[in-house]
Design a protein that fits this description.
Elements lengths: L2 E11 L5 E11 L3 E5 L6 H7 L7 E6 L2 E2 L5 H7 E4 L12 H11 L4 H14 L15 H13 L5 E5 L7 H13 L3 E5 L3 H7 L2 E6 L2 E7 H5 L2 H6 L9
Parallel strand pairs: 3-8, 3-9, 6-7, 7-8
Antiparallel strand pairs: 1-2, 1-4, 4-5, 9-10
Length: 239
């Protein structure tokens, strides 16, 4: 299988001295759906932010063979679409159309191509007809879908999602799961919701205190009750 992400000896510390990642080694292959699981504060979000240069780190992060560094960021960010945990961090324009079109416009697409990309992205997330709406007046679930559309409009090869189902009611949660299942690109999903990990991902990586403590099949890791309990995760029963 083709490697799309290669991480070697990745460490990261915040300005206050807190070390969020410690010597992380990881390879992700094309077409995989990978869950990054772990308790709060494990380093999941920090790891995602290192994938497209929002955080710079000690160690090596390569995307499609390109090192994550200044000269490559534009190309890397066109390939790695990052969806934040809070959609309000991603939605800032007066209308849904403007938010979804933002990336394509910045890439220099012409008007007709921008409209085509917006229409396709909104169709993917089931939000056709929302173009003139204010994103700030939408439900949490609708905002999540629009946030995903802003990334899909860029046609990324890797989709990275941070806690995509947080703050959703059960119907919204499983509706979003159904959407994500249909998207064909490589997916990396950080979540503490073990049901979501099992529903969406064949592979799981368990982080705790900034280190990879397990990497294997989702089924195998989620069935290891002592492992989950040792790292602050409730065991997944009857799912």
């Amino acid at each position: 299988m083709k490697e799309v992400i290669k991480i070697e000896k990745l460490s990261f510390s915040y300005p206050d001295g807190r070390q969020a990642l410690k010597e992380v080694n990881l390879t992700i292959y094309q077409g995989e759906s990978v869950a990054i699981i772990g308790p709060n504060g494990a380093g999941k979000s920090t790891l995602l932010l290192c994938l497209n240069g929002i955080h710079y780190s000690n160690g090596s992060v390569n995307i499609f063979g390109m090192k994550v560094e200044g000269k490559n960021l534009r190309q890397i960010r066109s390939k790695v679409g990052l969806v934040f945990q809070e959609p309000d961090d991603q939605l800032f324009s007066p209308t849904v159309f403007d938010d979804v079109a933002f990336g394509s416009i910045n890439m220099g697409c012409d008007k007709s191509e921008v409209h085509q990309k917006v229409a396709q992205a909104l169709e993917w997330v089931g939000m056709v007809g929302f173009e003139p709406r204010s994103p700030h007046h939408l439900s949490v679930g609708e905002k999540k879908r629009i946030a995903i559309a802003t990334v899909l409009s860029m046609n990324p090869e890797i989709l990275v999602l941070d806690e995509p189902t947080s703050n959703l009611d059960p119907r919204g949660k499983w509706s979003l799961v159904a959407l994500l299942r249909e998207l064909p690109m490589t997916k990396i999903i950080a979540t503490h919701d073990l049901e979501i990990a099992k529903a969406l991902c064949q592979r799981a990586i368990l982080l705790d205190e900034g280190r990879v403590v397990a990497d294997g099949s989702t089924e195998g890791i989620l069935s290891d009750t002592p492992l989950l309990e040792a790292h602050g995760l409730a065991s997944l029963r009857k799912v």
